[in-house]
């Protein structure tokens, strides 16, 4: 798997995921908060399946190849 999520986006995904996951324990205490696991995992591994399917990448592409 090639990384297709930029580092800043990875941090944001993890923060949002933790916020959603917190809904299970505080606030409305709904199981819908478990959806927060998805952005946590995609942020942790740096790869997003929908991005791969759609051909999207937020990572900077380097044109320089080592000699």
Structural key phrases:
67 residues, mainly alpha, 3 helices
Provide a descriptive summary of the structure in words:
The protein is mainly α. It has one domain (7-54). Helices cover 46% and strands 0% of the residues. The chain contains 3 helices and no strands. α1 (7-22) runs antiparallel to α2 (37-45). The longest helix has 16 residues, at 7-22. The two termini are 24 Å apart. The mean pLDDT is 89.
Task: State the end-to-end distance.
Answer: 24 Å
**DSSP summary, beta strand count:** 0
Counting DSSP H or I runs of 4 or more residues, the number of helices is 3
Return the domain count.
Answer: 1
Strand content of the residues, in percent? under 5%
Query: What is the string of SSEs from the N terminus onward?
Result: HHH
Major β-sheet, in short?
none
Cα gyration radius (Å):
15 Å
Quote the average pLDDT: 89
How would you classify the helix and strand content by structural class?
A: mainly alpha
Write down the overall geometry: elongated
Question: Portion of residues in helices?
Answer: 40-55%
Low-confidence stretches: none
């Amino acid at each position: 798997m090639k990384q297709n999520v930029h580092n800043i986006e990875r941090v944001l995904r993890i923060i949002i995921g933790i916020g959603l996951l917190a809904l299970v324990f505080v606030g409305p205490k709904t199981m819908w908060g478990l959806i927060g696991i998805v952005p946590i995992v995609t942020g942790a591994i740096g790869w997003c399946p929908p991005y791969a399917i759609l051909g999207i990448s937020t990572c900077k592409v380097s044109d320089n190849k080592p000699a």
